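Q: What does the assembly look like in three dimensions?
Context provided by user:
Components: two
Sequences:
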Amino acid sequence: MFKQLQADLATDHHIHFNDLKLLEEALTQANYINEHPGYKGGDYQRLEFLGDAVMQQSTAVYLFKRFPNWDEGRLTELRISMVQTRAFAALSRELHLDRYVQLGRGEELSGARNRDSLLEDLWEAFIGALFLDQGQEVVMNFLEEMMFVKIDEGFYDQFVDYKSKLQEYLQRHGTVKIAYTKLDEQAISNNEQVFTIQVSVDGKPLATGEGKSTKDAEKMAARKAYQSLMNN
Amino acid sequence: MFKQLQADLATDHHIHFNDLKLLEEALTQANYINEHPGYKGGDYQRLEFLGDAVMQQSTAVYLFKRFPNWDEGRLTELRISMVQTRAFAALSRELHLDRYVQLGRGEELSGARNRDSLLEDLWEAFIGALFLDQGQEVVMNFLEEMMFVKIDEGFYDQFVDYKSKLQEYLQRHGTVKIAYTKLDEQAISNNEQVFTIQVSVDGKPLATGEGKSTKDAEKMAARKAYQSLMNN
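A: Here is the predicted structure of the complete assembly.
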């Protein structure tokens, strides 16, 4: 089974993973081992310990070099939105680690295979294994291709609460009035509408956002306002 | 001034730090810059962001390889006792970073130069600068020599509350009686005594410890008991 993952890594990512045992360890949960006395390796937890730290450093090094003019506050903020459960779970799914993981029966029945917290652990364990098998440079290249390109696609924005951030920033010197106003609402099909929302502070417009619900449109407006304030 | 630190790094650690500006940035606080318009570099905060992550990974990689039979719980526990304020402050003092830091006047007057939280930041910033100037391998060798050797000297034990750990471990299946009993008390000079304390669980002796106060002797007994239980 892990030969398939090894082959996919070679085809899709040009990574020639050497140690299949290590790959299997990164994708094996403790209770699986208890139930399969024939399995001779370890579970993923030590590799998760390692991979967690490798993810922290790799992300910090990338952001430090990529954004030479950002202060540590902005760097930390972006790192937090990247190095967290939902982002890692999405990466695990993209690599199909959810298909490969060897679970105990109880975990399988309780739906762990689709649980973000398990998929986060698997991502970290996989990165720990990749670091041991291939070294830091391969890990960095792999993360650039899988994870860091998503910064420019706005992927990590979904994990940031921009309405709170905007409010915090605007009220840093005291209370101001922040309003979200609906400017437009258009049907694009029988079931779908697009809303346009404007966010303003003390009556002065900051940005507009669109979305398929007023909530989504507000979030988009808040993100655009926050990011344009940060870039000035 | 930073030429002296550069020279000390070469003499004491065989590190030939290239970029003096980077070394100065790692040891310059934001308010110093405000008060010295002639200073052209940045403050240490971006380097601290970087060094914090480098410390996490370097320590995790070292512990993972050094202790192949430890589970992730023990690895995490030791890492926590190493990667923290008081340990980093001690390392900063050992490298005399407290002498070099350029502080704003207010911070100087408030005693920041001897404050652990500042010295922790400086250690991380210095490691960030070392990583940029010399790369991962030099950082690892430097940490091995400055920091990881201290594991075997028991240096990080002082940051661990072994009495609580022992109690937690012994009571994991329910309440037991843990007792600390004084076995001996000897004067070693006019002002100094050595106490010997035994720790027992439900009347069964686990370990003895010595110390210049009963509190120290208890801590030592708890550490010896905890470590021998962990190694069995």
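Follow-up: Strands of chain B lie at 178-187, 193-201, 204-211.
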